[in-house]
Design a protein that fits this description.
Chain B is α+β, with helices and mostly antiparallel strands. Chain B contains 16 helices and 23 strands. Chain C has a five-stranded mixed beta sheet with strand order 6-5-9-7-8, covered by helices on one side. In chain C, a hairpin with an 8-residue loop joins strand 7 and strand 8. The radius of gyration of chain C is 22 Å and the shape is globular. Classes of the chains: A alpha+beta, B alpha+beta, C alpha/beta.
């Protein structure tokens, strides 16, 4: 069963291509479209993008593996990305990461058995003033505390 | 022409020259890995750091362009420390595979370590990043990602020269790795060049793997015998066995590259060789000494001419032989045997594959030479017809096959010729049909010149004397000619070439000196 | 106090074109398109507007590097990759005042005869990018972008381009490569972006805040902007304060405000009775200051004089009780994670330092490990294609130089005296 963009995504992609002077520049945004459409960037997804844009799969995969936000492996429904950089650490991020880890029973890098949560530690999210900070899928959760993180996890369960 | 100073030496160079290239012109080698004269500048290895006056930081010589009055130093303590620092970084994850690594002896890390390193490792072994070793990535190449210093020469080659981009960087930071996309191995005809350009043992030749330590090898400059492109190569051998061919730089022909099939051409000098003069008697082969063999062949040819006239002799020349050998072949046919039946065919069995880079459809290295020396392709068809009509009583075949004829067809054709002589290098269909076999030297066992598809006349040098009891083509043809009363006094290929230059318009004015190592265009072809 | 940027950031609707216009927005653009282009550039030069992304390079001078002839179309790229730890000001501008950025972009592109602009937003800022895109759509609708802007005959297209998670893409040539669809590897220079940049065209890359300052400069003049700050470093800056202070956040302050007042007056000082141990002034890549070194004006030259940098104005406050070895270990993990891997010293050096530090923090450090780290620093500094190696070296060196006894103690006692915790 080979992967393909839906008609809507295809149309989105066509519009996207008009913003750049060549197809190469569309690689990053196309990978995002593929990730949203197919869930994660499997080898099949990479082959699809390579074919769509006209580059070798090695070239596309080389780009995909360079950037942290392209997921080569599947992630859970909620990708919990907790910042572990300095300001967040000074404000207790280490404890929070441990707490989430204990609550969900997974180590950073792992996904819960029910596929609901993937826990990752990430670098500076650019919101140090409201540390500790966590990004869940596309959204930031700031000024985290043990209570607020418990509440967030409960809400997302 | 800006003038700049490097290590106190003044150099005048063309506009746009880099410090690294400029230094080369006065014999100063600035250490480097990622730089390659035929690839784009990467500037990532940081080995070529030098001091440039007025710049506070060290600059990379490969991407610093010479300006008038620039003062550069590559031999200061500061530079030396920088280079040692870079080397140390490169070696922290590098596996010390030297005892089992083919690159040993021609390894960039070994070479510069001996010059700039000689330090002990300060890196904790348990911190080492491990990567995949011994990966067959297709073509002629094995990849060992752990040995890789990430200089990107291979990636740039596949992007800029073959345009196939099979290799790429994956991941980031010190987990960066050069690899293929799964299921997409190397897929081009130039993969062998990757092993040449890789400064370390990350990309090595499958064919050469574990066969010979490079310090046992000697080299001879030669011309690839694989097709009419005439790529300049160097043949590497130990005693009288060839181990590999590598490209030699010639910007007019092959830059610094050669194709994969060409690299394997050395094998036929090692395998299936005709090494002993012999005659076929009572269905079996009898070895002969050269004196006896040459005399027997000469006699039989003379006898055939006496009985049936010169027209009953035919000579099929080979476009795999050198200009010198072809010239003497023509001379033998014209002046000694006095037969008009001299021809050649460039058609070979083999797929005739060609591309728009180096590979030519004509798999013979000297078709142009044969043509320029007046040997006719049309006559070949004529000769084949005469043979079929039973009009040929004595046939001299140069080479190992007749055109692209199958074993069967050759056997059938030659069955009706009472006396067939082969002057060739390898067993093949001609060998199996010949009555007399005069074994000739392979492409690395005698010097000579070849004319490529574009008309460039190029020299090839002898690496070692003919194996076994083979002899150079010049010796064999002269031996026959003189036994037939020719009185030739050629003393080796140079003297034959002088004769060619004197009498053949296309070669007028040429000499071995003028050909040098890069060759010259034949007259009217340049 | 004159507020160049944040005057209306408290107004939720300021991010919409209607409110922005009501509050005086796009008047500067109207003025700019009636000015000679050279004059706009001259005002920005007079303003002493130094790049707000971290390098502090004077914007007007950078613009001057574009080739004089217009035969090759130019590109303006806005660096919204805000990734320097401790920095979160561009996010504020993008979410509260995106039209400031857009107006700045149009004026700048007009002045530099540039018809294409890409805003490179870090991949994590999905919501922020949406807000910016909404503002861009509004701007197109009102004729501030697109064809024949305000009847001037000037065309401009702006595209938001999302990064995908790489700190290195904040470096301008890495950003350009990423924009072009490649791995975010910085480029060797020469050639420089102003002559060969994105897609081979002359390119200027400027930080969000830098460009957002342009409308005010056009309205009030470069001299006035310059006068808000100090000599050779004009205007106000958005200063970010994070760490355990009472009021963490972004403060718009005149360039040259004292670091002490930033921490104690504006950010309210340390909370929970904590005392100051150290401060990183300009984002994690700038050398750390001890608590007794904070009486310094926050401007590029003053900070440089005491051996650190204003950088991206990301002030990170470190309280007493913090293990400096652990803090440095966190930072080195960051640089090792973010090193693009292209050139030898950074690729290998960052990873090496991170591993040695990790061992020291865990009580497994050996004699000579600190000297080893400093040696590795020497072999990285100034030896690489881009300054990420320097960015890793500066905290490593400064932490060790200023808090050496902590490192020695970890090695001597074979454990972290702070209990391996923050």
């Amino acid at each position: 069963m080979s992967l393909a963009f839906s008609k809507e995504t295809r149309a989105k992609h066509e519009r996207l291509l008009t913003r750049y002077p060549n197809r190469e520049a569309a690689i990053l945004p196309t990978l995002y479209l593929a990730q949203r459409e197919f869930g994660h960037l499997s080898d099949e997804a990479i082959l699809y993008v390579a074919d769509l844009l006209g580059f070798t799969p090695a070239r596309i995969d080389g780009v995909a593996t360079f950037y942290t936000m392209y997921n080569k492996k599947p992630v859970g429904k909620y990708h919990l990305q907790v910042c572990r950089n300095l300001s967040c650490s000074l404000m207790g991020a280490e404890h929070l990461i441990e707490r989430v880890s204990e609550k969900l029973g997974v180590q950073p890098g792992e996904t819960t058995a029910d596929g609901r949560f993937t826990l990752s530690t990430v670098e500076c999210l650019g919101s140090c003033g409201t540390a500790p900070v966590m990004q869940v899928n596309d959204d930031y959760y700031e000024n985290l505390s043990e209570e607020s993180i418990d509440a967030i996890l409960d809400r997302l369960r | 022409m800006p003038t700049f100073t490097i290590n106190g030496i003044s150099v005048d160079v063309p506009e746009g020259t880099t410090v690294l290239e400029a230094a080369k012109t006065v014999g100063i080698e600035i250490p480097h890995y990622c730089y390659h004269p035929k690839l784009s500048i990467a500037g990532n290895c940081r080995m070529c750091l030098v001091e440039v006056e007025k710049f506070p930081k060290l600059q990379i010589a490969c991407n610093t362009f010479v300006t008038d009055g620039m003062v550069v130093k590559s031999n200061t303590e500061k530079v030396r420390q920088a280079v040692t620092g870079v080397l140390e970084f490169l070696l922290i994850h590098h596996p010390i595979d030297c005892p089992i690594c083919d690159q040993a002896g021609e390894c960039g890390l070994q070479i510069y370590y001996m010059k700039y390193g000689l330090h002990k490792s300060r890196y904790a072994f348990e911190d080492k990043v491990h990567k995949k070793k011994v990966q067959d990535i297709g073509g002629q190449i094995i990849l060992d990602a752990e040995r890789c210093i990430l200089c990107s020469r291979c990636i740039r080659f596949l992007q800029e020269v073959t345009g196939t981009s099979e290799l790429e960087f994956f991941q980031r930071g010190d987990h960066s790795e050069i690899s293929l996309f799964p299921g997409r191995p190397l897929d081009n005809h130039y993969t062998g060049n990757l092993a040449d350009i890789c400064p370390v043992g990350a990309l090595t030749s499958k064919d050469f793997r574990f066969k010979c330590r490079v310090w046992f090898l000697r080299g001879a400059k030669s011309i690839c015998p694989g097709c009419a492109n005439g790529c300049n190569v160097e043949a590497h051998f130990k005693e009288n066995i060839l181990y590999r061919l590598v490209p030699r730089q010639n910007d007019e022909v092959n830059q610094t590259w050669m194709c994969d099939p060409g690299r394997l051409e050395y094998k036929k000098a090692n395998e299936g060789r005709l090494l002993i003069p012999a005659v076929r008697e009572h269905g079996g082969l009898k070895a002969e000494a050269w004196e006896a063999a040459l005399s027997a062949v000469a006699f039989r040819l003379w006898e055939t001419v006496e009985k049936n006239g010169s027209e009953s002799i035919a000579v099929i020349a080979s476009p795999a032989f050198s200009n010198e050998e072809l010239y003497l072949t023509r001379k033998l046919a014209d002046e000694v045997l006095r037969t008009p039946n001299l021809g050649f065919s460039p058609r070979t069995s083999g797929n005739g594959f060609s591309d728009d880079f180096l590979i030519k459809a004509d798999k013979n290295p000297n078709t142009q030479g044969a043509q320029l020396l007046g040997i006719s392709e049309k006559k070949f068809e004529d000769i084949v017809r005469r043979i079929s009509d039973g009009k040929v009583k004595g046939l001299l075949v140069f080479g190992n096959e007749i055109a692209d004829f199958s074993e069967e067809k050759t056997g059938e054709l030659l069955a009706g010729v009472p006396f067939v002589v082969q002057i060739g290098t390898n067993e093949g269909s001609v060998f199996r049909a010949a009555h007399a076999i005069l074994p000739s030297a392979s492409f690395v066992e005698r010097g000579g010149t070849f004319t490529n598809h574009a008309g460039r006349v190029q020299r090839s040098w002898m690496g070692f004397p003919p194996r076994g009891n083979a002899r150079s083509g010049i010796e064999i043809i002269t031996g026959l000619a003189n036994r037939l009363g020719a009185g030739w006094k050629f003393a080796g290929e140079a003297s034959v070439f002088r004769a060619i230059a004197k009498s053949e318009a296309s070669f007028a004015g040429m000499s071995y000196e003028s050909l040098g190592e890069q060759g010259q265009m034949a007259g009217g072809k340049g | 106090m004159e507020l160049v940027l944040t005057a209306h950031f408290g107004n939720d609707r300021y991010r919409h074109a209607d409110t922005y216009e009501e509050l005086g927005g796009y008047a500067a653009l109207r003025k700019a398109i009636s000015m000679p282009k050279e004059e706009i550039v001259a005002e920005v030069k007079k303003a002493n507007l130094r790049g707000r992304g971290g390098a502090g390079f004077p914007a007007g001078v950078k613009w001057g590097f574009l080739p004089k002839d217009l035969s090759r179309p130019r590109i303006l790229v806005i660096n919204a990759d805000e990734g320097e730890p401790g920095t979160f000001k561009d996010r504020l501008i993008m979410t509260r005042g995106p039209h400031l950025l857009i107006e700045g972009i149009v004026i700048t592109c007009y002045a530099l005869t540039t018809h294409v602009c890409y805003i490179y937003v870090r991949g994590e800022f999905v919501r922020e990018a949406e807000i910016v895109q909404e503002a861009i759509d509004e701007a197109y609708a009102k004729g501030y972008l697109g064809r024949n802007i305000l009847g001037s005959g000037f065309d401009l297209d702006v595209t938001v381009h999302l990064g995908a998670g790489a700190y290195i893409c904040g470096e301008e040539t890495s950003l350009i490569n990423s924009l072009e669809g490649k791995r975010g590897w910085p480029r060797v220079k020469p050639p420089f972006p102003a002559s060969v940049g994105a897609f081979g065209q002359p390119t200027i890359v400027n930080n969000v805040e830098t460009i957002a300052d342009v409308p005010w400069i056009v309205t009030h003049g470069g001299e006035k902007f310059a006068s808000l700050g100090v000599e050779r470093d004009g205007g106000t800056r958005l200063i970010c304060v994070s760490g355990p202070v009472k009021k963490p956040g972004v403060f718009e302050l005149p360039v040259g405000t004292s670091l002490r007042s930033i921490i104690y007056e504006h950010a309210g000082g340390l909370k929970d009775g904590k005392t100051l141990k150290a401060v990183i002034p300009g984002g994690s890549s700038t050398p750390v200051l001890r608590a007794d070194e904070i009486d310094v004006a926050f401007d590029f030259e003053s900070l440089q004089k005491i051996g650190t940098m204003a950088g991206s104005a990301g002030v990170i406050v470190i309280p007493e009780g913090t293990c400096m070895v652990r803090a440095l270990s966190v930072l080195m993990n960051f640089y090792a994670h973010e090193s693009c891997g292209q050139c030898t010293p950074c690729r290998e050096g960052c990873g090496w330092m991170a591993k040695v530090l990790h061992r020291i923090e865990n009580g497994e450090g050996k004699d000579g490990d600190v000297e080893l780290i400093l040696d590795v620093c020497d072999n990285m500094m100034g030896r690489t294609i881009c300054p990420l190696a320097d960015a890793a070296v500066m905290p490593a060196q400064s932490f060790i130089w200023k808090f050496r006894e902590e490192f020695d103690r970890h090695i001597r006692d074979k454990k972290c005296p702070y209990g391996s915790r923050f």
